[in-house]
Amino acid sequence: IPQSHHAGTGPQSARRNQPFLTPPEEEEGGGGMGRGKIEIKRIENQSNRQVTFSKRKNGILKKAKEISVLCDAEVGVVVFSSAGKLYDFCSPRTSLSRILEKYQTNSGKILWDEKHKSLSAEIDRIKKENDNMQIELRHLKGEDMNSLQPKELIMIEEALDNGLTSLHEKQMEHYDRLVKHVCMS
Amino acid sequence: IPQSHHAGTGPQSARRNQPFLTPPEEEEGGGGMGRGKIEIKRIENQSNRQVTFSKRKNGILKKAKEISVLCDAEVGVVVFSSAGKLYDFCSPRTSLSRILEKYQTNSGKILWDEKHKSLSAEIDRIKKENDNMQIELRHLKGEDMNSLQPKELIMIEEALDNGLTSLHEKQMEHYDRLVKHVCMS
DNA sequence: AGCGCTATTTATAAAAG
DNA sequence: TCTTTTATAAATAGCGC
Question: Where is each MADS-box domain found (chains A, B) (predicted)?
Answer without folding.
Answer: 33-93
